[in-house]
Model the fold of this input.
Amino acid sequence: MSATITPPAVSIPPGDEMHAVHHQPGWIRRYIFSTDHKVIGIQFLFTTLLMLMVGGALALGVRWQLAWPWERMPILGDMLFRTDGGQITPEAYTMLFTMHATVMIFLVVIPILAGAFGNFLIPLQIGAEDMAFPTLNMLSYWFMWPAIGCFMLSFAYDGGPAAGWTIYPVLAVLPQAAPGSGFAQTLWLFGLTFVGFSSMFGSINYMTTIINMRAPGMTLFRMPMTIWGMFITAILQAFALPVLTAAGFMMLADRMLGTTFFIPGGLVVNNAPATVGGGQPLMWQHLFWFYSHPAVYIMLLPAMGMVSDMLACMSRKPLFGYKPMIFSMATIAGLGFIVWGHHMFTSGMNPIVGMTFMVSTILIALPSAIKTFNWIGTMWGGKLQFNTVLLNCAAFVSMFITGGLSGIFMAAVPVDVYIHDTYFIVAHFHYILFGSTLFGIFAAIHFWFPKMFGRMMSDRVGQIHFFITFAAFNCTFFPMHLLGIGGMPRRYADPYHFPYLEHLLPLNQFMTYAAIVMGFAQFILLFNFGWSIFFGKKCGRNPWNSNGLEWQAPSPPPHGNFDVQPVVYHGPYEYSSPVSGENDYLPQTEYMPRRPDQSQGH
Amino acid sequence: MARFWSIYFMSWAALAVALCLAAPSLGWWFPDTGEAMSSIGRRIDGLFYIILWITSIVFVGTQIALGYVLWKGAVKPAHEKATYSHGNHTLEVIWTVIPGIVLLFIAIYQMDVWAAFRMRNYAPGEIEAIAEVTARQFEWRIRYPAPGKPLMPMPQPDDVYTVNDLRIPVGRPVSISLRSGDVQHSFFVPVLRIKQDALPGTVIPVWFDALQPGSYDLVCAELCGWGHYKMKARVLATSEELFQKWKQEAVLLQADDGLQSASPAESTAADQAQTSTP
Ligand code: HEM
Ligand SMILES: [Cu+2]
Ligand SMILES: [Cu+2]
Done:
């Protein structure tokens, strides 16, 4: 934390961007093709919540098949697979898990973090009136729709793309390799390209905004962790995404122009004429994971940042180890670029290189551990507000520990040889992507909802939602570790085909029951969300007594955000400071009379 | 309510630990007997259990810490303020260095297993390949050289073929040449703890051993299309003699044109004579 007492040199002359007159644009420009970051953020939020339900429904299809293989699936099966009598065929099963992952990763988690919360929070938390490039921002939202269109349209072709979200060649490249590898796969690749555009527009915007548009006094080390998370994520995105985009175009070229980047010669696939080639399928895996490992952090770091802010506020305590938190986040991001090979230990890659990737992967667990200890340290000695926000944040920490620890097993290369591509992996990444990120998102929805809509969400309903979701989540995903240890491979339409897996059926049925409960529990969230927009308790500017700049703006903030240009005097975590008198918080815009002497680390 | 929630958090962790403790006796553990049937598999399991111990201790420790801070927060008197602290330098150092050492231990400790598994013995030729395994949608085609001959890269007229049935001699390291005829697959024998992707366009030597005779499930572990789940096969490990005998019978069976039936004994002798002539 900066030790400056007087307001530091003003980087942007106050009032400079403020005196532009805000004339209210028309309805369409205001709510549909809006360039206001808040509207765009909320558009992203609605869209991604809708997609969350779609992705969840697909997941229930997968779970149904694992619990009651080849049986008619009520409701969903009748809707989707009417021609097969509501039964999930193996082709449909591959499509289900492919599209589940695609929707969840590209249409839910990435856009809800960067698109919804990044958009809404960045200008508000750094005291800017909008993003640096509002039109680009609008495009970033509207490029989501062609992507959604492509993905949804791909369902219509031969049962949909079916090569997994990792689309490994040769399966995904040759149309004859699988029913879903025809035009559906091409559409899928176009969809991926469009989400790529959307993310890239966003990340350019976030970097520029955070670097250039901070309010006077908002030095880098006074920024909330949310901003750090978004900033580091934007950098990751900007460096990693071009590789995936290029690889995607190479695959499109293989599919449509007759190149053979990923196709070796002499393969006879499905009795088609032998391929002519010279390509290397392994190259796709390298290029894909070069993006997709950083992408798993793109799906986590913003949530880590938001949880840090919310935990401090709900513990009424400064964040424990602000700078270590930032440095560990930056380390995770940096190391994230050199660990991609841990997805390829069994791929046929040079085993000696595997050793290198093992070491870097083990290294990345260290900053993760540091962050965990600091979160617990933040809560330690705090005056905890046991509300929905705190509960979901605590769940984030607890689930992150679990997911991080299962990562250690997989970072041990010889052990990974056994558990790779089994349900152990599925357990691992659901603990992190659902257990951590999604619980973090639940917390963030409850926390920033008042700022978005000027009303509170019901805390009681929120707690009920949390109670059910947390229990059902663990019942669904914890046993997956055991399935993996039992040797059950992922992406199997019918594991019970093998005698050594037959005894896992009851466990799978239990998990499916839990998953159904969990799926239905999300309607509680949606109900709470929708109801509170119209009937929630009205709230003032700062319902949580929080320090961040966003709480100084009206709720909801008008076009242009702040009525007075905020000036920042200190970091965002001055909770329960001895100098704040009666209050246990000290907004960043309030002058801090004197540095309390007991603060550490200077 | 606050106390309830801190108990809620601790109870999930307790249940998770209980489930893991109970899992082996419920059969939700490593397949079959739970014991690996290959020498490298035993070392992998050893590594697994060491990591399981370490992670379990960390899991229990951190979850208790989390439950404890939640509980302390829950029972805090209403008038008390939160502790005002921005962090603690000593604590940061402690919880960086200790996990660092543990992680370093895990990194170094596993290196030897990996080296034994894939690096020292990776070079083909050290152990002769006994068969070529070609994965295709959705079966395993296996090609053995005729008795007494080495496996050639290209198919030979007297090669022996099986489908979904890989025979190996027990008790010594064997090696196969793994390839794919179409898309990517993965050669996975859970009980032997062996997994290697079959990469189109590349021949990958894979070595392993079976410590006891038996039939081990061979499954595919890389998505290869709609029938991925049904690439059901077995690795049948028998004694060296039985393996050789089976191969000779298989040669006969494959060459049998139904006209003249030579007795196995004769043909074996003929076969040996044939192979011993230069
Ligand atoms: C303690 C840190 C972590 C370690 C050591 C670790 C290690 C690994 C390893 C080795 C794999 C590959 C396993 C295999 O396929 O055989 C893997 C897969 C995966 N990890 Fe992690 N991980 C860590 C944290 C994370 C985080 C923070 C995320 C997400 C935000 C994450 C998301 C994933 C995903 C999505 C996959 C699977 C991708 C797929 O195959 O579909 N991991 N992890
Ligand atoms: Cu990774
Ligand atoms: Cu397969």
